[in-house]
Amino acid sequence: MGCLTELFVALSLVVVAVYVWFYHSYNYWYKKDVPYLEPSFPFGNVYKSFAGKQSLPLVISDAYRQFKGKAFGGMYILIQPILVTVDPDFIRDVLVKDFAIFHDRGIKVDEKEPLGKHLFLLGGNKWRRLRVKLTPTFTSGKMKMMFPDDGGLRPGDGAGAAGRGGRRAGGGAARGGGALRHRRHRQRRLSASRWTASATPTTRSGSGGRRVFQANAAATINFLIRAIHPKLLTILRVRNNATAVSEYFRAMVRDTVEHREQNNVTRNDFMQLLIQLKNKGCVDSDKGGSHTEGEEDDAWRLSIDDIAAQAFVFFIAGFETSSSTVSFALHELAFNPDIQARVQEEIDAVLKENKGEVTYEAVNNMHYLDKVVAETLRKYPPAPALSRESNAEYQLPGSGAILDKGTQVFIPVYGLHHDPEYFPDPERFDPERFSEEQKAQRHPYVYLPFGEGPRICIGMRFGLLQTKVGLTHILSKYNIEPCEKTVRHLSFVPRAFVLTPTGGIQLKLSSRKNV
After folding, report:
1. 507 pairs with which residues across the strands?
2. Could you tell me the CA-to-CA distances from 485 to 179, 494, 505 in Å, in that order?
3. Do 105 and 238 touch, CB atoms closer than 8 A?
4. Strand, coil or helix: what is 508?
5. What is the pLDDT of residues 372-381, one digit of tens each?
6. Of 98, 191, 421, 495, whose CB is crowded by the most CB atoms within 10 A?
7. 282 is in an annotated binding site
8. Which phi-psi region, left, alpha or beta, contains residue 44 (left: φ > 0; alpha: ψ -120 to 50)?
9. Stated pTM of the model
């Protein structure tokens, strides 16, 4: 009995100590005289996220709406204080003007994790050095070079088997679908997903990519540990990427590089550019051109693991964001037939001028399609929130408060994109929001589908190109309509890393008879 009493007392003391620790932490924003949301023990302000009711980016966007009228506000992820930006001028400062202080995302990298050393996660000088190396691989010239002669589709692919005969086509983020089968071939052709003749890229690359986006308990635990203290991930040896995913991508890259180098194979794709960075330290057309490097950078070469990490994040971007944007665009066009008819009219006219060929120049001449894609990215931004971390103390604008070094700052992209002050009637799908006249009337930092500043998404051009090519092929051949399973107003998977529609997107594709 005495042992049980002692155990009870010990546990009680631990609980009290933890509560006091949390309570003390929850005074952080109060002491700084920063407006904040009242936290609740032990989840802070993100109970909905941990309970699987709402994704963290949407929780942050809800906070944005509550802070509206202020420049910023504070909240808590468990005990970790985070700052939510509201004022577009402050957002500009974080992303551009004061980039020297906010150049890192605040996501700690485990140096022992091979796939963790990619451009999205790295910070400081390691990020700068890699960015200098990779920037020349995403110029408009490189995009044109990588653009396939056949427009990205194999004969017979069309919009996929699900589209034939006017049947229902299922698409969705991280799931794939009949209407979106084209993207897998484009990834194999344009990205790092190249295989030897004996491999089966569609099956293996699809299943490997899906593992990255599976929203499960392990991902939640990972996030929980990071919120308590990022260094615990390293101490407890918790990896961001599952071992199977890591081994899959490393083996894929190793086999691909060996096959090309041993057989003297050269292709116009992203992998070939990475191989050049491995062997030469620069891409061919930039040596001696406008892209200059210091002696230290010039001597640095990408390792196989460096290539695998870049291929990994490039595959994620191609696998998820472009296919999601195509899916969301088709969903909106199905409910806006007048907009669909107008974009199809433009596609038909441009393709007629180009003898029916989907060329790089043709796609870039589809200006109304540009607006459709831009409006899709507004309603469904690939990154619903951006994160930055202060690497020094920072005076908050219009306030006497000092932001401590190491504080994480979130930019609520989804909240900005759905703010009626900047986008009236934000749930309405209206591509004309992106006419030159309307864009000129808006603050440039309220539309951030790819981020902004020096850390703007390096693959933005490629992502937009891939999305437009996919939509061009589908809309030139098919009309998109709702079916009996189509949901007008989408809800999103709570634990997904990006906006993922619950149950996917179900649409009906019917052949256009007169084209």
Report:
1. 169, 482
2. 16, 21, 9
3. no
4. strand
5. 999 999 999 9
6. 191
7. no
8. left
9. 0.83
